[in-house]
């Protein structure tokens, strides 16, 4: 059974007296004690910077960890990235305690700029004239088991990770995955009480000996930058440029701008990284239209098209799914939508509303419309569920106020795709602990 659809319950959140930095060091030490080999997955971004530096601190802290030095660090260069990232990765590669492998492979990447060309491949030999940057001199362009041709056979980075540890030795990949980033990632680290941050790698190239370790999974964005400041860590100077351009720390990305979520900030690449933008602006099919219209309702950013009054929400969503031309993509998107709706009804019997996310599931029809329009093939777009009590009260107030308006306008259960009659008194849906504050 798909764990997202089954009845498994996540473990409750437990607040500890220990700070997240100490916990990350303890987890890293446990991983280094437990596994034969360690790999740090290093993108050059802020989260993998924290993982790398903590791993190095722990590896140097006790003689029993010396077997992991120099630390094996793997970097997949995604080509359409700032030169500051390349410069930072090079500085890391020159450290005596790091053995960095700098891969420049034509891995499969999502191109959300075009529905007719939904993928692109950095460093693809057939696109050499379009490369955004010269290939770094440190580049490794071959990995046993990775197919170069035909392009359709090329693997994504998650799918090829098993090729990095083809032997029988138990291997842990330290990764900068944080629960703050999405509901899916939060669930991934809340299934078990013990070793909840260690997950077996189940990709197609795995041999059963590889595990992913999310040693900073409970960190917030503020924790990452605080640790870098207090410890004097080197970091990617691309973040300085984005900060000067007014991009908030929560929106800063150093990855290629062609995926569903990065498109929202594609204009910042022209402002922050003009040296690479000239080539980026011609790198993938559809990029010209995306630059002009990515922040409009065409890509469901900023605004979304209005649903006709005579059309139900399920039919409206189905219309946008049908606009995807490839059957495989339609099937994938439709499956994701059904999964999200089922997840909502496992949390509650309340209806899904047009704009207000349900406080228990985080689902709204507007959110589902975004999935139908963008695709979200990498599952970067997740339901919003706040955990602070005061936020929950506001969410219930917003949800019940919208349902009250809909009832007054004569909206039916069928229009909302709800399988039962709509509740006549929305205020009774508010849990007792939030009712007084929500009704103020």
TrEMBL record:
<dbReference type="InterPro" id="IPR014729">
    <property type="entry name" value="Rossmann-like_a/b/a_fold"/>
</dbReference>
<dbReference type="Pfam" id="PF11922">
    <property type="entry name" value="DUF3440"/>
</dbReference>
<dbReference type="InterPro" id="IPR021845">
    <property type="entry name" value="DUF3440"/>
</dbReference>
<feature type="region of interest" description="Disordered">
    <location>
        <begin position="416"/>
        <end position="440"/>
    </location>
</feature>
<dbReference type="InterPro" id="IPR002500">
    <property type="entry name" value="PAPS_reduct_dom"/>
</dbReference>
<feature type="domain" description="Phosphoadenosine phosphosulphate reductase">
    <location>
        <begin position="38"/>
        <end position="241"/>
    </location>
</feature>
<protein>
    <submittedName>
        <fullName>Phosphoadenosine phosphosulfate reductase</fullName>
    </submittedName>
</protein>
<dbReference type="Pfam" id="PF01507">
    <property type="entry name" value="PAPS_reduct"/>
</dbReference>
């Amino acid at each position: 059974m798909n764990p997202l659809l089954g009845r498994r319950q996540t473990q409750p959140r437990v607040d500890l007296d220990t700070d997240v930095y100490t916990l990350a060091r303890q987890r890293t030490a446990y991983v280094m004690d437990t596994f034969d080999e360690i790999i740090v997955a290093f993108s050059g971004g802020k989260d993998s910077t924290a993982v790398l530096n903590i791993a190095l601190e722990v590896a140097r802290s006790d003689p029993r960890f010396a077997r992991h030095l120099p630390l094996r660090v793997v970097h997949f260069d995604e080509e359409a990235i700032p030169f500051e990232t390349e410069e930072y990765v090079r500085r890391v590669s020159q450290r005596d305690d790091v053995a960095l492998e700098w891969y420049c492979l034509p891995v499969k990447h999502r191109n959300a700029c075009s529905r007719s060309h939904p993928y692109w491949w950095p460093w693809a030999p057939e696109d050499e004239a379009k490369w955004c940057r010269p290939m770094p001199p440190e580049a490794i362009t071959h990995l046993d088991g990775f197919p170069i041709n035909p392009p359709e056979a090329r693997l994504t980075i998650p799918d090829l990770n098993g090729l990095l540890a083809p032997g029988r030795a138990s291997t842990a990949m330290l990764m900068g995955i944080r629960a703050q980033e999405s509901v899916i990632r939060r669930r991934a680290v809340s299934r078990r009480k013990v070793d909840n941050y260690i997950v077996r790698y189940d990709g197609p190239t795995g041999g059963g000996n590889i595990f992913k370790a999310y040693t900073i999974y409970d960190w917030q964005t503020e924790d990452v930058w605080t640790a870098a400041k207090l410890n004097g860590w080197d970091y990617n100077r691309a973040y300085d440029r984005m900060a000067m351009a007014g991009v908030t720390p929560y929106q800063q990305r150093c990855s290629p701008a062609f995926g569903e979520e990065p498109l929202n900030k594609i204009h910042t690449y022209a402002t922050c990284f003009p040296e690479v933008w000239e080539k980026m602006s011609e790198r993938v099919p559809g990029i010209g239209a995306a630059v002009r219209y990515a922040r409009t309702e065409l890509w469901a950013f900023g605004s979304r098209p209005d649903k006709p009054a005579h059309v139900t929400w399920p039919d409206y969503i189905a219309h946008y799914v049908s606009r995807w031309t490839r059957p495989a993509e339609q099937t994938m998107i439709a499956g994701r939508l059904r999964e999200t709706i089922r997840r909502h009804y496992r949390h509650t019997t309340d209806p899904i509303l047009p704009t207000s996310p349900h406080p228990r599931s985080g689902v709204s029809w507007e959110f589902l419309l975004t999935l139908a329009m963008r695709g979200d093939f990498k599952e970067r777009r997740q339901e919003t569920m706040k955990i602070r009590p005061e936020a929950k009260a506001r969410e219930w107030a917003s949800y019940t106020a919208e349902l009250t308006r809909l009832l007054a306008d004569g909206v039916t259960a069928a229009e909302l795709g709800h399988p039962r009659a709509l509740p006549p008194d929305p205020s009774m849906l508010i849990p007792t602990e939030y009712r007084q504050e929500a009704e103020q």
